[in-house]
Design goal:
Strand order of the largest sheet: 1-3-4-2
Shape: elongated
Helix content: 25-40%
Number of helices: 2
Strand content: 35-45%
Radius of gyration: 18 Å
Largest sheet: 4 strands, mixed
Number of domains: 1
C-alpha cells in the first residue's frame, strides 16, 4: 500500500508534525454550462427547488480542482496539503472557475 496523502482544511494534522513546508499549491478548472443543461435548469427554476444539474457540475469541478492541486503537490514532493480552501468565481456569462488551494507540506508521523 502506498503512502497516505493528507488533504485537509486544518492548519495542523493530529498525529503528524510538519517536517517541511513546500509552498502554495493550487488547482483550477473552468466549466461552461451546456444548452441542454440550461434548458432543464430553466424548467427547474420555474418549478422551484434544487438545480441538480448545476450541483453535479460544480461538484465534479471541485473534485477535479482538488485532484489537480494534489497532483501539483505530489510533483513538489509533498505528502499533504494543509489549509485547503475552495473558491468559485464567474469568468463570463455561463462559465465559472473553481480553484482549490493550500500549502503543500511534508508530514511526518509523531511518535
Amino acid at each position: 500500500m502506498g503512502q497516505e496523502f493528507v488533504v485537509t482544511t486544518l492548519e495542523h494534522v493530529p498525529g503528524y508534525r510538519i517536517k517541511r513546508v513546500l509552498g502554495l499549491v493550487s488547482g483550477s478548472v473552468v466549466r461552461a454550462r451546456s444548452i441542454g443543461r440550461d434548458i432543464i435548469a430553466g424548467l427547474r427554476n420555474i418549478a422551484g427547488g434544487e438545480i441538480v444539474e448545476y450541483t453535479e457540475l460544480l461538484a465534479r469541478s471541485r473534485d477535479e480542482a482538488v485532484q489537480r492541486m494534489v497532483e501539483k503537490a505530489k510533483a513538489m514532493g509533498a505528502n499533504g496539503v494543509i489549509g485547503v480552501r475552495l473558491s468559485t468565481s464567474s469568468i463570463m456569462s455561463g462559465a465559472a472557475e473553481v480553484v482549490a488551494y493550500g500549502t503543500a507540506v511534508v508530514l511526518e508521523k509523531e511518535e
